[in-house]
Amino acid sequence: MTWSKNELAKIGASDDLHISPLRDDGVTLGTPTWIWSVVTDGELYVRGYNGQASRWYQAAIRQKAGRISAAGMTRDVGFESVDEAINDRVDDAYRAKYAASPYLAPMIAARARAATVRITPKEN
């Protein structure tokens, strides 16, 4: 399943994405964590500020599923790590969306790049 253009536009313009990967039981959602998100090449991406040490990142990669809330929408989603090739375009999207933030530099540095995750919607 893919995001609609309308959904991606709303999420891309929003600064309120909360991510809740499933816990180790595979059923219970984790505590929602507010994170930055960007849209690149028709896909939704997030990164762990603390890199692969981020707890939500570890749960997302391990469980591959959870839920996000963004732009007034709540969706069950899948998570997958990405290959290095997309990271330059994801960096560009972070630069465009968060240019004024003092937190931009760490989000496009090697630590956060190593924790880039693609989020895909699941059928409801």
TrEMBL record:
InterPro entries: UCP028498 (IPR016888). It comes from the Bacteria. This is DUF2255 family protein. It comes from Mesorhizobium neociceri.
